[in-house]
Amino acid sequence: MSVPIVRTIVELRAVVAGWRRSGASIAVVPTMGALHEGHLSLVRCALQKADRVIVTLFVNPKQFNNAADLAAYPRTENEDAAKLTPLGAHLLYVPNATEMYPDGFTTTVSVSGVSEGLCGAFRPGHFDGVATVVAKLFLQTGADFAFFGEKDFQQLLLIRRMVRDLDIPITIVPCPTVREADGLALSSRNLRLSPAERAVAPRLASVLRDTAEGLSNGSPVLPTLAEARAAILSAGYRQVEYLELRGEADLQPIASIDQPVRLLAAAWLGQTRLIDNIRTLPACQLPNESLRIPR
Ligand code: PAF
Predict the structure, then answer these.
(1) Counting atoms of ligand 1 from 1, which one is nearest the CA of 31?
(2) Displacement of CA 83 from its chain's centroid (Å)
(3) Binding pocket residue ranges, ligand 1, CB within 6 Å
(4) What is the pTM of this model?
(5) From the candidate CATH numbers 3.80.30.20, 2.70.150.10, 3.40.50.720, 3.40.50.620, the one assigned to the domain spanning 5-175
(6) Does the domain spanning 188-282 belong to CATH 3.30.1300.10?
(7) Strand 5-6's sheet: what is its strand order?
(8) What percent of the chain has a predicted confidence (pLDDT) above 90?
């Protein structure tokens, strides 16, 4: 049997109420569709943690600051449902824009601090759109757990902050970035790369890995980041929006590595914007973390 699909809040709540009556725990995996192995790994983790798993599919217009980007976003509901069925996901929730934002909708959830800088600086309004829709999805599903990938690290921290600040009774579970064999972080945007761009794309991950290793081993921060930017550009990326070292707990800028930090980047390859990040540890705490991105 294929995964059941509901499209309205009323239908969703009726299914959830039935599950609650039987005492089941519930997880949600929010997505914008075009499901790839990264999303599927979130669903597998969710299935291990909770009795029932809801996957949501909504291409959220409020988080796109560019109309062309929204129009170009892949919409592949049938293929997505076909990928979820064999995993055993229990429900696919696919609201349309009117269900999510009916006439007269005026509320925005805005999380300051962690949403500033990095992607927040280059995509005005993006994180307000994310926070607003994720808050609604949490309230609509009433789930106990929600699963998010570490690839969107700033998004993950923002959602954690929002849940704490608004006392939403849900546990956020982060999951590691899933990568292609050559290190490229999985993303729905990878589908837009030409064969030539696809060949260049993994250089972002390999530069991050080498830079994180260098920084862990004591290379000076600013010159090392400048070299990394130059390496990304000379690999064939058109523009580096940001390449920054930030505290892992709060994304505050940091100047030296005496605690676990994240090296985060966004760069344009042709018409496609890719993001990635890697954990970077002080040398004394180095296990095999930096080996996660294959050479
Ligand atoms: O990461 C995404 O795909 C989206 O930002 C999310 C969390 C589903 C909200 O639309």
Answers:
(1) 8
(2) 19
(3) 30-32, 60, 63, 130, 133-134, 152, 155
(4) 0.95
(5) 3.40.50.620
(6) yes
(7) 5-6, 91-93, 52-57, 26-31, 145-149, 171-175
(8) 89
Mean pLDDT of the chain: 95
Q: Please state the separation of Cα 33 from the chain's center in Å.
A: 12
pLDDT grade for 289, boundaries at 50, 70 and 90: very low
What share of the chain in percent tops pLDDT 70?
97
Q: Rounded to whole angstroms, how far apart are CA atoms 178 and 169?
A: 28
CA-nearest residue for atom 5, ligand 1, is 130
Nearest CA to ligand 1 atom 9: 130
- Cα 96 to Cα 119: distance, rounded to the nearest angstrom: 26
Average pLDDT score over residue span 92-101 = 98
Q: How far is the CA of 30 from the centre of ligand 1 (A)?
A: 6
Both tokens assigned to 218:
């004591």
Q: How far, in Å, is the centroid of ligand 1 from the Cα of 217?
A: 35
Residues in contact with 146: Cβ distance below 8 Å, sequence separation at least 6, in sequence order: 27, 28, 29, 30, 134, 138, 159, 170, 171, 172, 173
HSE of 11, CA atoms in CB hemisphere, 13 A:
12
Residue nearest to atom 8 of ligand 1 (CA): 31
- Location of structure tokens 């250089």: 203
Mark whether 39 is an active-site residue: yes
Kindly give the number of the ligand 1 atom that is closest to the alpha carbon of 137.
Answer: 9
**Pick the residue with more confidence: 73 or 277?**
277
Contacts of 192 (CB under 8 A, 6+ apart): 72, 271, 272
Domain extent listing, the chain: 5-175, 188-282
Q: Looking at the predicted structure, is the pLDDT value of residue 295 above 60? A: no
Q: How many angstroms is it from 31 CA to the middle of ligand 1?
A: 5
Distance from Cα 150 to the centre of ligand 1, integer Å: 12
Closest alpha carbon to 293 in 198, 174, 152, 184: 184
